[in-house]
Structure prediction request, 717 residues.
Amino acid sequence: MPKKKFFIRYFLILAVFILAAVVYGAALLNLQFARAEEFLRRIRSTYSVTFVIPAARGEIFDRNGEPLVTNKISYDIIIDGTKMSGRNIRDHAGKIIGLVEKIELFGGRTEPDSFPVILIEKNGAAEYSYSMELASNPNERVRLDRFLAREENKLSPNISAEELAAFLTAKYRLDEHMPPETRDPAIFRKILGICYDFDRLNILAGDNKYKISSDINESLRTLIAENAANYPGAEIRRTYERVYHYPESMPHILGTIGQIPAGRQDWYLERGYELDAIVGRDGAERAFEEYLRGEDGIIERTYDQDNNIVNERFIKEPVAGKNIFLTIDIKLQRVAEYSLGKTIGRIHELAYTRDDPRRNGLDANAGAAAVTDPNTGEVLALATYPSYDISLYGEKYGELEADPDKPLFNRATMGLYAPGSVFKIATSVAALCSGDINPNTHILDRGKYTEYQDYQPECWRYSMYGVTHGYINVGHALEVSCNYFYYTVGQRMGINTLTRYSRLLGLGELTGIEIGETAGVLASREAKEASGGVWVGGDLLQASIGQSINQFSPLQTANMLATVVNGGDRYKCRLLSSVKEYGTDNIYYSPGSEIINSVDISAANLDAVASGMRNAIATGTGAILFNRIPVQVGGKTGTVQVAAGRSNDATFVAFAPYNNPRLSVSVVIEKGAHGSWAGFAAEDIIEYYFGYKTFEEAMDMDIGIDIDLDIEDMDLE
Prediction:
């Protein structure tokens, strides 16, 4: 190639290179100097915000390590009003609608709102109506009235649901974003409810944060995170959702979690909680909050001017709460729950079978059972019937609250029932320990007790059959449940002695269980007069056989029996077995057993009472029970007159084995007619506990009557 040609080509390449260098150099200089202020401004426009990262809540297990309540990580969409410019909802309606539409598109669900108006579709047209809860819940009505009376609203409290929906549609200018002719009525109702909540709760003023959707999927999470500028104020927050492994079992024991209760904010704030913290509201969740609660973490996020995250760092890592292990045996608990329902079914069949025109027991509809270890105070089972599915608590609350059978009510610890003849155990102990009788003291049953002119009660056997029990001591009196005997010993020792020993046995006293309970009422002159009544001699007689104003919870009577059969030590009832570090077997705390008080029951006196209860099951009022198992059981039946026009309540207590008690059981069946019939549930519990039935057998038993019962010859006290 000629030198001249080569030189020209070389020159052209060099010129292009120099030109490119000049261009890129000029651009670099422009970036570094001419536009330096612009970039500095963009850098300076970033801002940092700290967020609370919720800690994992501790999990709940039964005594054998079976999981009852565990955690599932989920992600929620939270709206932070402080990050939304402007304080008028209509300025953000379009973005709220866009966010809801995206949630719907990605298969998510919006959280229930508090707008008390429901959508009804009739003949293809959408109409609005007030919800049933507005009529039944006074708090709902108060909230709505406050909103209607606001200065910017000034609406009549009698405004119709249709008129209210139209007013809010205009106030928030929703028609501009969702024209009536094209909008989906169901989605529009959701938008209306969310805007109502934003307005009522002052979300845009930063007074509250609003959860718009929970447990969102990864696709929606990614969309919101990558398009933050399109959804101002929307944040993705990691939370822990409670998973119930046995949702229909022991809801009253486990309890619920939720926002801090109204009026309790200061108490929680003083202990380091955030205002929007999730706390235990009742049951074990509340009782053991100090262990279950973790330590929230703090993360700092840095945003640019377009609200994109440019950096984040942990200021404090979250620390999970501790796991708690309950004294409950979940299988025994499920057997007790199942058996209560089955027992009520058996009572209904017996009511039809017996030659009784009143069909006593046909109205039985509810009950409770408590099972404790008499040597420790540990509660092994605590069943209430009817019950409910705790996983549907929020969704079904209104329905559950309105249910006349009160499934939300914890009958085992909060229900108060007259014990009936079950109380004769306490009367026996009081009379023996006070020295007013001894095991060999015999009293002649004369049928009718004639100490008072104006009140002369009869023994049940005399009333039913016209015969008496003859000369009878305390053991035999317990076996056959002789009222006359207990009228006599009650009169002999007086109400003060009876009350003193009954309290030592735990009746009319709190058991100490960690969840909610009632102390009950122990009959006395003071208690009667405090309720506006007048104490008369007949009250002492009635109190001695478990009537008068005596009322105790099933757990109290189980604890009373436990105190007697263990020799006189009243243990504090407890549900907490141990506390362990999250995800480990390291024990953080174990409470141990605690004796509240003791009663000095001599061996002779204990033998007299225990043998009387043993004979009550072997040959007495509970003789139809426990015939299929070799373990020796002691117990006592009670039939309680409550009110005219309904069947008597049925009460029953039992302990086993007779020579070395390891189990104390108390059962109440409301309107169960006869105490021995309540014993069917105790029978199932004891058969399973001592291994005479497998769990599967105990849960699958036929609820029909499969026992050869000679009803007419039974003592159904």
Notes: Residues 703-715 have pLDDT under 50 and may be disordered.
